[in-house]
Automatic annotation (TrEMBL):
Residues 11-31 form the RecX first three-helical domain. Modulates RecA activity. The keyword Cytoplasm applies. The keyword Cytoplasm applies. This is Regulatory protein RecX. It comes from the Bacteria. It is found in: Cytoplasm. Residues 59-100 form the RecX second three-helical domain. Residues 110-155 form the RecX third three-helical domain. One of its GO terms (biological process) is regulation of DNA repair. Keywords: Cytoplasm.
Amino acid sequence: MEKEERRKLTDYALRLLSLRPRSQKEIEDRLNLYSCKHKISPQYSRDVIIELTSQNLINDEEFVSWWIEQRSLHKPKGRKALINELRRKGIKSNVVENVLSETKYDGKKEYDLALQAVEKKLTLWRNLSVETIRRKMWYFLTSRGFQSEIIYRVIDSSIKKLYNTKDSNS
């Protein structure tokens, strides 16, 4: 019976990991829910976590790298927002900081990501007044966790670009 329960938990964890990388805490939480639902001892969940971690199938540093890459590609966020998201996923601050410094997630990269995030929105906002666009950009980028100095630079360059494009099309 014990082997069967461990196998069920291991299979479940592997199914979760086959969908996308996950933090250790995410796997722990999901295995604990599964254990409760199927009346399996929580000790087996811990054993499965240890086993998968020793096989490097659960690796918080690799998860953080993957998460940052995915955010950069699909939903750019500022350093502050990334750190908060990863903390909610159970990642320790020092792991996040190490990976952010290794991936060179600096002001230049954050500026480029903020520009990328705002580009899509500018097409929706192009017929609004300059002040409305500035306000919308400010709220949008703030909600994505970008630093204020980066937001100011992005707003200035985006407004200039938008109005230079409008003037040349007229």
